[in-house]
Design a protein that fits this description.
Helix content: 40-55%
Largest sheet: 5 strands, mixed
Bound molecules: 5'-O-[(R)-(carboxyoxy)(hydroxy)phosphoryl]adenosine, zinc ion
Strand order of the largest sheet: 3-2-1-4-5
CATH class of the largest domain: Alpha Beta
Distance between the termini: 23 Å
Number of helices: 11
Number of strands: 10
Shape: globular
CATH superfamily of the largest domain: ATPase, nucleotide binding domain
Radius of gyration: 20 Å
Strand content: 15-25%
Length: about 325
């Protein structure tokens, strides 16, 4: 069985062909990020327009790369991100998926984008041991999720304000660095001193929720007061504070729930401090560690196809009347 995945929830237009053994035949990602850089963030209207021109060619390339006939491809189902995300962007992928579904006479299924991210580590490690606790951190989301099996998940904690990546992007903007800010702050942080700025320790309660908004404000305040702190030291101090909070909560989740593996997912999973910290946690608890490659950390359609395979099995196909859900919570997936 081959499934075509389609992802257009933010600024990446992506299509991929995956089979039931989670073998990835093709995975094509086109980003409109260059159009957004000058604005310091994704401009929804530009993202939506870019998807309209890109979706057809991207799907075509995904079929070509998988050696499938673009007119009569041997595709058995289509999985498409139907939320959460930018409404104008989601609608492009969803409409395309419905059109292909009708044209090829195959079922389609709407997939939650965050559930897609949870499947990314599995694509690179189909034999992983369960249960797994995943730290899912991206530009739009920050969650700790307990998975007892593929498609069976429970949200243990999430951000009460900004997402981790959003905080990186906002601090980077304040520091005059480009967009997206995460990679640049991460690069600078590796050369700086994490003790240069005294930043508050956030969210010290017993819950597994996060907060990054106060940290971002603290960086702004501290750098307003101290003008002579090197950029690399600001970056290192901020990165240490973000990682400390994320890893402290992840550790608490692993104390509270016995797991066989710990995984990172989402764009912020590229972060060097976080990758080291999660590996260390895995060693401490004696469990498997799943650190997806960069291509799997960031938005792609292979993870949507993988999640779609399970959703089709668990919930069956979606109706042609399915609408996009821009605020669809992972906890509401069933
Ligand atoms: O998952 P993603 O590609 O897009 C969504 O938000 O869905 O994540 C992008 C986010 C951006 O906020 C970016 O600044 C952040 O991931 N990011 C990083 C790193 N690389 C990307 N944050 C920290 N360290 C990094 N190395
Ligand atoms: Zn994402």
């Amino acid at each position: 069985m081959k499934i075509l995945g389609i992802e257009t929830s933010c600024d990446e237009t992506a299509a991929a062909v995956v089979d039931e053994h989670l073998h990835v035949f093709s995975s094509v990602v086109e980003s409109s990020i260059d159009q957004h850089r000058a604005f310091g963030g994704v401009v929804p209207e530009l993202a939506g327009r870019a998807h309209v021109t890109t979706i057809g060619p991207v799907v075509r390339r995904a079929l070509d790369d998988a050696d499938l006939d673009p007119h009569h491809p041997e595709i058995d189902a289509i999985a498409v991100t139907s939320g959460p995300g930018l409404i104008g962007s989601l609608l492009v992928g969803l409409s395309a998926a419905k059109a292909y579904s009708l044209a090829w006479g195959v079922p389609f299924v709407g997939v939650n984008h965050l559930e897609g991210h949870l499947f990314a580590p599995l694509l690179e490690r189909p034999d992983m041991a369960w249960p797994v606790v995943t730290l899912l951190v991206s530009g739009g989301h920050s969650l700790i999720v307990l998975q007892s099996a593929p498609g069976e998940h429970r949200v243990l904690g999430e951000t009460i304000d900004d997402a981790a990546g959003e905080a990186y992007d906002k601090v980077a903007r304040w520091l005059g660095l480009g967009y997206p800010g995460g990679p640049e702050i991460d690069r600078l942080a590796r050369e700086g001193s994490p003790d240069a700025l005294k930043l508050p320790v956030s969210m010290t309660g017993d819950d597994l929720d996060f907060s990054f908004s106060g940290l971002k404000t603290a960086v702004v305040r501290a750098t307003e007061k101290q003008h002579d702190v090197a950029l690399r030291d600001v970056a290192a101090s901020f990165q240490a504070a973000v990682a400390e909070q994320l890893l402290r909560k992840l550790r608490a989740a692993m104390v509270a729930h016995e797991v066989k593996g710990v995984a990172l997912a989402g764009g912020v999973a590229a972060n060097s401090t976080l990758r080291e910290g999660v590996s260390e946690l895995a060693r401490e608890f004696g469990v498997e560690v799943h650190l997806p490659t960069m291509a799997m950390c960031t938005d792609n359609a292979a993870m949507i196809a993988a999640a779609g395979l399970y959703r089709l099995g668990i919930s069956g196909p979606s109706s042609l009347a399915l609408s996009a859900l821009p605020n669809w919570q992972l906890a509401d997936v069933s």
